[in-house]
Specification:
This protein has 324 residues and is of the alpha/beta class. It is 42% helix and 19% strand. The strands form four sheets. Strands 3-2-1-4-5-6 form a six-stranded parallel sheet. It is globular, with a radius of gyration of 19 Å.
């Protein structure tokens, strides 16, 4: 039986902590898959990280073979099959978005280089740390020997948030909703698109008003993270970890029939979106790979929203272009 190596960065943080136990318990790859878990942190957080490792030991998970807690990226990414890049520099008071981008560029360029040097050539990378799309671009650009298709950024939390809100509005279950898409950037410029979505095989657009979609649903999905911070005093952690698990599990095992998910991936020019950015598209996953759903009709309102998110990502790229 093969043993898979899974790396979590920022593993002593809230999201990383949630992820570590779910992955170690077998919820990601299944109870039969043995795993080596590698946890990466900054030196200042090593004591907390060692505490996490002790707790993982104490769980006695049957599928967990080894735990490595380290502040050395070369150790953390050695033979890595799956990487969850969670740790990122947070936005501080008075910090401009460009400052945040540059602050994270150092982190993700170093991790990209370590992935390039030490990881499995078929690694699957999910960037969770914000600004996730551009952080994924930085990591990808610093790993020239790894396929660009190995690098993704997480839009699944936004996708899941949108599913939950549509389900509540239509008095349905989240599993009744198909073909929802979150386009673009993981920011307030993302575009939650319901024009192709169905609820129990009925078009969502025929069940709820355009006014609710444009003035309630879209802003609510875009601003959900900020609402949670306001109420909880902390950013989303458990829901973010759950979405990261969903993202990678679907990538590995495939999406459900007659449905798609939202993943931020390297743009190939589909839907007129510029190449050279990590942009969220509707995708179908099969046999460990993904492909963009093609030939969807894009109306004028949607086109405006898609291009606005593209413009933001192009601006982010420009701010860090010298580091790519």
């Amino acid at each position: 039986m093969s043993i898979k190596t899974i790396t979590i960065t920022g593993a002593a943080g809230q999201i990383g902590y949630q992820l570590a136990f779910r992955i170690a318990s077998g919820q990601l790859l299944g109870q039969e898959e043995k795993i080596n878990l590698k946890l990466l942190e900054i030196p200042a957080a090593l004591d907390a990280l060692n505490g996490v490792a002790m707790e993982l030991d104490d769980c006695a998970f049957p599928c967990l073979e080894t735990i490595t807690a380290t502040d050395n990226a070369s150790v953390a990414f050695q033979d890595c099959d799956y990487a969850f890049l969670v740790g990122a520099k947070p936005r501080g008071p008075g910090m401009e978005r460009s400052d945040l981008l540059l602050g994270n560029a150092e982190i993700f360029s170093a991790q990209g280089k370590a992935i390039n040097a030490y990881a499995n050539r078929n690694i699957k990378v999910l960037v969770v740390g914000n600004p996730a799309n551009t952080n994924a671009l930085i990591a990808m650009s610093n790993a020239p020997e790894i396929s660009p298709n190995s690098f993704t950024a997480m839009m699944r939390l936004d996708h899941n948030r949108a599913l939950a809100q549509l389900a509540a509005k239509t008095d349905a279950h989240v599993t009744d909703i198909k073909k929802l898409t979150i386009w673009g950037n993981h920011s307030t410029m993302q575009y939650p698109d319901i024009y192709h979505a169905t609820v129990n095989d009925q078009k969502v657009i025929n069940l709820i008003s355009l006014d609710w979609i444009k003035n309630t649903f879209i802003p609510s999905v875009q601003q959900r993270g900020a609402q949670i911070i306001k109420l909880r005093g902390l950013s989303s952690a458990a829901s973010a970890a759950s979405a990261a698990m969903d993202h990678v599990r679907d990538w590995v095992f495939g999406t459900a029939d007659n449905n798609w998910i939202s993943m931020a991936i390297p743009s190939d020019g589909s839907y007129g979106i510029s190449e050279g950015i990590i942009y969220s598209f509707p995708v179908i996953c099969t046999n460990g790979s993904y492909e963009i759903v093609q030939a969807l009709e894009i109306n004028e309102f949607s086109e405006i929203c898609l291009k606005a998110s593209e413009a933001e990502l192009l601006e982010e790229r420009k701010a860090i272009e010298h580091l790519l």
